[in-house]
Description:
By secondary structure, the chain is α/β, with parallel strands linked by helices. The protein has helices at residues 23-39, 86-99, 122-134, and strands at residues 67-71, 77-79, 82-84, 108-116, 137-143.
Amino acid sequence: MGAAITGRHKRRGRAVMADINVTPLVDVMLVLLVIFMVTAPLLTAGVSLNLPKAHANAISQQDNKPLEISLDSKGDIFIGDKRMTLDELSDKLQAIAQGGTEDNSGKNDQRVYIKADSKLDYGKVMVVMATINTAGFTKIALVTDPTMRKD
């Protein structure tokens, strides 16, 4: 008669390994992390400026995002990436001020950051600051490069 084969022969060699090898997963995740770390600074859109150097304390960040206005070396005005004239800036700021919150004095409490190229005439920056103030914004800050110039 026939011999029963099942259950009588032991497997020879290694037993089946039930563990998951995480080394390739960690390698892939580290590569992705490096890719994101390199590309994240490149994703910020804006106007290319040569900011003046100054040594000052950083402005404390609050929950609401500030409005950023940029002036390039030619004196062109930008909100974000959008170029505009001084009159368009005034109209835009007044529209923004209408939707903002006001303090007891009737002035808008939203922060405005001005980024101006270091080669730009000081008078042009002051005209833009006066336009911002006229629109009702009182919290205006000038953004500089945090490294101190050594010349």
